[in-house]
Design a protein that fits this description.
Layout lengths: L2 E7 L6 E7 L2 E5 L1 E3 L12 H6 L5 E4 H6 L3 H6 L3 H5 L5 E4 L2 H6 L4 E3 L4 E4 L6 E4 L1 H11 L3 E3 L11 H21 L6 E6 L5 H12 L5 E4 L8 H11 L9 E3 L5 H9 L4 E3 L2 H7 L2 E4 L2 E4 L19 H5 L2 H9 L3 H27 L3 H12 L6
Parallel strand pairs: 4-14, 5-6, 6-10, 10-11, 11-12, 12-13, 13-14
Antiparallel strand pairs: 1-2, 2-3, 7-8, 8-9, 15-16
């Protein structure tokens, strides 16, 4: 039912092409996954997502548990029926959201007690509860409940956290009761090479259908994130997908792909869209700026999205300044299509063994410094 198919490995890097098969269809990797936190990708319809060629989307356990409640989603027939999306869905465990509450939560061996960001009510997540909620939601891929520590964190605490996450993973596996959902473990270890290696080896020992890499892109320098990936990747099995969690800027996508990452997600493209910023092949464009008031060109002449084919920067700026809802929709369509199209071009570059050349050319156009 779940199977990763390795199609092609780049001759010069660790980049690879693959395909992961799920009960709701397969998706090709490397892949960028739009985030639909509350059973919707903000401002977009499922039809919009199909038109931009999204293959798989995410939803969030923490938020759906709080509202409308996982039992209601189960009663509706699961997330696919509830949100009318018939392609693969991944749910994260809620761990990142719970641990980001900081002063509003308390960690014990049993789990985490936390207060809702909505109304301050008290709740408890254990590994078993996180899995039970995800079993009810019915996503194709579900994530183990882990501890996502902040950056920076000292070595001793990080070591204890790695051990706890492994114990929680064991409990997640025992609680998981649906064969039609693939449970991924999550590698932690902070910014310490020895603990990243320890977490990797102990997580891989469970022989799960796939593996997330968590606790990165949490405020550390990007070079440090790449360093941690370089520690992890030589040990990852070739027949399982690798998912770098919460990463979505174009430079990090390309650097991750070159190191062997298969799956990415991030709220960045839709979040900056709602703030009037677009991703383009020439770098970011802050469309709300006055300089675009009379700019009657598309956001990106190289983009094939509905927004770029039909509207100008001047019109988009007008929508933003007028606080029109359509601005968020059109910019979100563009930003997500930009990253999905980037991954399509990356796949072609891997197929032709020119991913390094593609990365260097993309960085040159975008305005990044290229170190490879």
């Amino acid at each position: 039912m779940f199977r990763y198919e390795l199609i092609k490995e780049d001759k010069h890097t660790n980049a690879r092409l693959g395909r992961f098969h799920t009960p709701h269809g397969s998706f090709d990797t490397p892949v960028f996954m739009p985030v639909g936190t509350q059973a919707t990708v903000k401002a977009l319809t499922p039809k919009n997502l199909e038109e931009i060629k999204a293959q798989i989307i995410l939803s969030n356990t923490y938020h759906l548990y709080l509202r409308p409640g996982h039992d209601l989603v189960k009663e509706a027939g699961g997330l696919h029926n509830f949100m009318n999306w018939n392609k693969p869905i991944l749910t994260d465990s809620g761990g990142f959201q719970v641990f980001s509450l900081s002063d509003l939560r308390k960690i014990t061996e049993e789990g985490v007690t936390f207060r809702s960001h909505l109304d301050g009510s008290s709740h408890f997540f254990s590994p078993e509860q996180a899995i039970n909620i995800q079993n009810a939601l019915g996503a194709d891929i579900i994530m183990a409940f882990d501890e996502c520590i902040p950056y920076p964190a000292d070595h001793d605490y990080t070591d204890r956290s790695v051990d706890r996450t492994i114990r929680w993973l064991d409990r997640c596996i025992k609680a998981h009761n649906r064969d039609d959902q693939a449970l991924f473990g999550i590698i932690q270890g902070g910014m310490y090479e020895d603990l990243r290696l320890k977490s990797t080896l102990e997580t891989l020992a469970f022989d799960l259908p796939g593996y997330g890499i968590g606790g990165l892109s949490v405020g550390e320098p990007k070079d440090l994130m790449y360093q941690m990936l370089d520690v992890i990747m030589p040990h990852m099995p070739k027949n399982k997908p690798r998912y770098l969690m919460g990463v979505g800027s174009p430079d990090c996508l390309l650097e991750g792909v070159i190191r062997g990452v298969d799956m990415f997600d991030c709220v960045l493209p839709t979040r900056i869209a709602r703030n009037g910023t677009s991703l383009t092949s020439r770098g970011r464009v802050v469309v709300r700026n006055a300089s675009y008031e009379r700019d009657f060109t598309p956001l990106d002449p190289d983009c094939d999205c509905y927004t770029c084919q039909n509207f100008t920067k001047a019109y988009l700026r007008h929508l933003i300044k007028a606080n029109e809802i359509l601005a968020s929709t059109l910019l979100s369509i563009h930003n997500l299509r930009f990253l999905i199209k980037l991954m399509e071009e990356v796949k072609m570059a891997i197929l032709e063994d020119r991913i390094l050349e593609y990365k260097n050319e993309f960085f040159r156009k975008y305005g990044y410094d290229s170190k490879s």
